[in-house]
Amino acid sequence: MTDLLALIVAKYNYWLYVILMMIGLYAMIAKNNLIKKLVGMNIFQTAIILFYVSIGYKRDATIPIIQSAHGGQDAHAAVIHAADYINPLPHVLMLTAIVVSVATFGVAMALAVRIYQRYQTLEEDELRMRLVDIGPEK
Amino acid sequence: MDNTPALIVVTPLLAALFAGLAAWIKERLSYPIALIGLAVSVYSAFKVLMQVITSGTIHYRVAGWAPPMGIEYSIDLLNAMVLLIVSSIAFLNLIASYKSVARETSDRTGSFYTMYLLFVTGLLGVTATGDLFNLYVLIEITSLTSYAMVALGDRDRGPLASLNYIFIGVIGASFYLLGVGYLYMQTGSLNMADVATILSGIHGSSTVLVAFILMMIGVWIKMALFPLHVWLPNAYSYSPIAFARVVAPLMTKVMVYVMIRMMITVFGFDYIFKTLNLSHAVVWLATIAILAGAIMALSQKNLKKMLAYIIVCEIGYMVGGAWMGNQLGMTGAILHILNDALMTFALFLAVGNMAYKLKKVDLPDLKGLFGKMPWTMAGFVLAAFSIIGVPPTCGFFSKWYLILAAFEAGAWHFAAALVISSLICAVLFFRVFEICFFEPISESHGQKDGYSHVAIEEAPISMLIVSGLVSLSLIVAGLYSGTIVNTIILPFLR
Q: ipTM for the complex?
């Protein structure tokens, strides 16, 4: 039991992202309201973004801005240790992923608006009934 | 540096920008811009393929940054072939769809062509890139445009089908992204070739295993492998026909390409077939996918839906072939990417012609179609024969390779599934032929005097020519499949 607890505490960032991801996935699968599903989708994507951000982190490290690198007096005198700086690459990747998730969310919201305009509801079970009402598909 | 590899991807992207801008000035301007953009892309893809065949793999550094820091387009024989297929199918479809776009999305042709170009850009980029994260972004570009396009179709059901497609598409892409994250944790690199070199030393790592499983599930969702296929039939059958014709042959096939690329270039055969030994389970999965796809196709009453389930079935062929673990299977799978893209395109072109004239393509609507649209039906019959696997059409040859591979690997269940699904396809298509040929045009179809007045009402000539050309290319590809295997696929696998 203590081993498990130690494992959870030592890797808490992974546990957090997995929990968030499952919350999102649950909402996407189980919720009846389309907007709730969309929120679930956003939580799901955010969980992955947090995962990426956390893997760039190092203990006792600082942000990757090298002081006095450009034209400073002792620019090349100081030895730069990679271990002193967190890895910025996953963070940069996530800028792109955030753009992607915002775009997806926007498209999905626009579709939800269209569905609401057409059927006056966003509940999935009611939508299914309306679809039966409009008759055989084209 | 020779910039042709970049031109393949960049010209449709730029054309999308200009087509979007031009549509503000005058809606009609966007079509020629799209046409020019894709023509340049086809030409560059052809040039690159010739170059790769003669002088080997091309490594193109985007903006001159050397890998593994920079993004690299690494184009070998497999890429080059898929690039040519994607760009030429997109170009031919653009020629064929001018009239149907003008009718189906009359108020928004400008945005249709813009998104069409962006969709093709995404597919071409996915194929060309040698960078794992870049691949994710391009998959998302492709998916985003296809969500929007599906919603442009059927006004009643399109938006809902598209929203369901978004939910599943996001899960698929996110799983892939998560897999890339684990791979990055273990290797510290995103360049495929670089990752492969690092991975070859650490086959036992459980992080790599998690990465592999996550990436494969992501790609399988995107390619609609059987239990993960639920989004595909609705999304494809409710989208505008001009888009269905390009998404059906290309999207799933490019995802199969991504899977093969991951298997061969990134993880390597040794890892998958020796360390993990997953071949058996996945071939069973593919077998079930083939049978399930074929059986579900049987129960459809709408021609578009039926074809969508046939795609689910064909995905099973390619996944099974690729996971068979021998050279014959991989050859069959790669050849089937080419053949299946061509046959699905030919089928959907014919269905597009029917839909242009008939508006609806439920099976009872097709009565008497052989008399009404003889040329379209000729193309349809040829494509159907190819799906069934009648020689000398190309569908026969890839199935032949797949069956031989199944015998070699001792996967009798897969061989049986191939044969059974071919028989089911034969039943499916002959049922359609029967309706089209023997049943007279019903009274409700607007023609009161039935038999006596069966005038030929063909689709516009531009659609007919493309449909005919592609259907004939099925035979040509069949006759030359030996050449294709010997010059492209076998040198690639070696």
A: 0.90
Comparing alpha-carbon positions, the chain A residue that sits nearest to B177 is A48
Kindly indicate the confidence band of residue A70, based on its pLDDT and cuts at 50, 70 and 90: low
Nearest CA of chain A to the CA of B76: how many Å?
A: 26
For residue B421, which phi and psi values (nearest 5 degrees)? -65, -35
Report how far residue B374's alpha carbon sits from residue B454's, in angstroms, rounded to the nearest whole number.
11
Domain ranges across chain B:
280-463
DSSP codes joined into one string, B141-179? HHHHHHHHHHHHS-TTTHHHHHHHHHHHHHHHHHHHHHH
Q: Give the dihedral of Cα atoms B393, B399, B403, B404; nearest 10 deg.
A: 60
Chain B contact for A45 (CB, 8 A cutoff): yes
CATH code for the structural domain at A2-62+86-133 = 1.10.287.3510
| Region for residue B493 given its phi and psi (left: phi exceeds 0; alpha: psi -120 to 50; beta: otherwise) | alpha
Close Cβ partners of B230 (under 8 Å, ≥ 6 residues apart): B164, B168
- How far is C-alpha B459 from the geometric centre of its chain's CA atoms? 24
> What token pair was written down for B201?
């030393």
> Which residues are CB-contacts of B67 (< 8 A; sequence separation ≥ 6)?
B59, B61, B130, B131, B191, B193, B194
pLDDT in tens, A87-97: 888 888 999 99
Nearest to B137 among A55, A100, A111 (CB): A100
Tokens of A116: 């609401």
In B210-285, the DSSP E strands lie at none
Chain B residues with beta carbon closer than 8 angstroms to that of A118:
155-156, 159
B157, B167, B360 ranked by CB distance to A131: nearest: B157
Tell me the nearest-neighbour CA distance from B208 into chain A, angstroms: 15
For residue A55, the chain B residue with the least C-alpha distance is: B185
Per-residue pLDDT reduced to its tens digit, A22-32: 999 999 989 89
Q: Do B133 and A96 touch (CB under 8 A)?
A: yes
For residue A107, give the nearest of B229, B151, B121, B116 by alpha carbon.
B151
**Domain regions of chain A by residue span:** 2-62+86-133
Contacts of B211 in chain A (CB under 8 A): none
Who's near A126: CB < 8 A, 6+ residues apart?
A119
Averaged pLDDT for residues B135-141: 93
